[in-house]
Design goal:
Blueprint (H helix, E strand, L loop, with lengths): L1 E4 L5 H14 L4 E5 L7 H10 L10 H13 L2 H10 L2 E5 L2 H11 L7 H13 L8 E5 L2 H14 L12 H17 L5 E5 L9 H8 L3
Parallel strand pairs: 1-3, 1-4, 2-3, 4-5
Helix pairs in contact: 1-9, 2-3, 3-5, 3-6, 5-6, 5-8
């Protein structure tokens, strides 16, 4: 199961709350967050580029999308191992993130060429496991930006990057996420109201609805 949303939407908090609810119900849980900073050379290149390293690489939409995809390609064995060993696997970001941000950067919608390219690359060519469902934490871009800025102040390793500080990009990305969810792209989507914060999500009810029925 994949948790998606804008930077600052509350994905990490929701992942933690769902993990606790599932453990309390006796389910085993595996977790993985993308990009895998500190574990994958491709993820580390992403972080360095988003903080203005590697010249003009950040300007290439397809180049950046390829780095994100290669990070996930390198995790295929880990994902399959988690799926084999656990009742539930929670992924913080996955293929849909690449589709949403690449489309937003190119000012395309969810039916555009780059979304098709991401599918062909990550699903068809790289053979990434398809998720059972997506959870979209839907928040207004300005709310997500405020949270991301506040997080950057309180957490030393969470400085806002070039994508997070681009408010127009975040607005376009939110629209593409809505379109992906409406079309059921890659797997079924459940849209959650994240305006009150993921901490207010009823994780127990959500866990029962999605995983324990």
């Amino acid at each position: 199961m994949v948790i998606e949303g804008l930077d600052g939407a509350g994905k990490r908090t929701l992942t933690d709350r769902l993990t606790g609810a599932l453990h309390a119900a006796g389910a085993s849980v595996g977790k993985l967050a993308f990009p895998r900073y500190g574990e994958s050379v491709h993820a580390d290149l992403v972080r360095e580029t988003l903080h203005r390293g590697h010249g003009d690489l950040a300007d290439s939409v397809y180049g950046m999308a390829m780095l994100y995809a290669l990070d996930r390609r390198g995790a295929v064995a880990d994902i399959r191992a988690l799926l084999a060993a656990n009742d539930v696997v929670l992924l913080d970001r996955y293929v849909a993130s690449n589709a949403a941000y690449a489309a937003a950067r190119l000012r395309q919608d969810a039916h555009g060429e780059v979304v098709r390219w991401v599918w062909d690359l990550e699903v068809e060519r790289f053979g990434l496991p398809r998720p059972s469902t997506h959870l979209l934490l839907r928040v207004a871009p300005e709310v997500a930006a405020e949270r991301a800025e506040r997080r950057a102040v309180t957490e030393a390793d969470r400085a806002r990057d070039a994508f997070e500080t681009d408010d127009a990009l975040q607005t376009r990305c939110a629209a593409v996420y809505d379109e992906l969810a409406a079309s059921g792209w890659l797997a079924p989507w459940h849209v959650l109201d994240g305006e009150g914060g993921a901490a207010h999500t009823d994780a127990d009810s959500l866990a029962k609805e999605l995983f324990l029925s």
